[in-house]
Amino acid sequence: MKTFEVRNAHFDRLVNTAGLRWMGQNTNHATPHSAVLAAMEKCIRDEEFHIYAPPAGLEELRHGIVADLGLEGQAALVSDGAVASLYHVCHSLLGPGDEFITTDPTWNWPMAFARAVGAKVTQIPIYGEEYGYRLAPERLKAAITPKTKVIYIVDPNNPLGSACTAAEIDGIVAAAREVGAYLIHDCTYRHFAHEHTLAATRYPERTLTIYSFSKWLGLAGMRVGAVVAHPDIIEKLSAAPPNNLGSNILSQRAALAGLGIKAEWFPGVLSQQRANQKLIKDAADRIPGLSLPVFPSNGNFVVLECERAGVKPEALVAAFQKHDIMIRQGAYHTPNFGDRFVKISTTVPTAWVEEFVELLPTMVEQVRGQNEDVKLF
């Protein structure tokens, strides 16, 4: 059977597992605000689904995204989720012989998009105490060549949860500006960060900011996001977008309602997920060999290192899967460092986290020294 068939069947089984605790995909399972549900219900009752949305997105939503980022003077192009924006940007800006630089680990799909158009991908390792689990601007500058066309940073980093400081953003921008490279600043997890600096405030002419409603608002299955950039860049991107008939209008209505209630609703989500992180940290501290290398995480997830405990990530994932708890093996994010860790999502009900930490000591003992021959994605 073809790999894509096996992979799809794997996720189909997960989706159709009733009661599965989704703790591996950074999805947000907080109870939605009533205004968001009401907006979706009204959209369905009014049968808006018969029509196409505006090609660049609802005007109110476009302006709301720019305002949420505080990037006055920039423009938004609404997409079918942040990953669709990344696909569009990579296919529009890159070509054969161009170089795409990112970190290791990073979000894998933009590398696949870059390679698909013939670009060379270069990864700069950031996993490990020797790197501080972050990208030093001088290391980025050393990796840049005359062919560097795009620099891609996920900030806060997925899966690590580390976030660039303002000084690091200044250095990254300086390195990009020196060669005239585009800087894709993937801010999918920005809303969970303790502090965050947008590169577009330093390099507005060539920074493309990737925005998502999947994580902070919990609309992962609705597929709505955006790319925000200088109007000249958006003009170029709008010439041939993947979806020139407008993104899902139901999703856009939900996203627009979400922006309206964000100040009221999101602080509770943030507080709960940070408390969930602490529960996992406390549990890991009680088990020899386990650790959280980045704590607190600036994302809605944590990395749990298990290598020193003699535990293979895949074995731990498979053990929890038998209890209908889905966590993610490190190899999903990085083949070079994936044997060291698992990733656990924290925008989930506290009861899920409590179940996870209660099982953790038993699961570690059960799989220590084992290799799990199972297909995971």
Automatic annotation (TrEMBL):
Catalytic activity: L-aspartate + 2-oxoglutarate = oxaloacetate + L-glutamate
InterPro entries: Aminotransferase_I/II_large (IPR004839), AspAT/PAT-like (IPR050596), NHTrfase_class1_PyrdxlP-BS (IPR004838), PyrdxlP-dep_Trfase (IPR015424), PyrdxlP-dep_Trfase_major (IPR015421)
Cofactor(s) listed: pyridoxal 5'-phosphate
Pfam family, any one: Aminotran_1_2
Class of this enzyme: transferase
GO MF annotation: an example: transaminase activity
Record flagged with keyword Transferase: yes
Claim: DNA repair is one of the keywords in the record: no
EC number: 2.6.1.-
Domain of life: Bacteria
Leader sequence residues: none
Aminotransferase class I/classII large domain sequence ranges: 27-358
Keyword line: Aminotransferase, Pyridoxal phosphate, Transferase
Homology family: Belongs to the class-I pyridoxal-phosphate-dependent aminotransferase family.
Xref: PANTHER family: ASPARTATE AMINOTRANSFERASE
Name of this chain's protein: Aminotransferase
Source species of the chain: Bosea robiniae
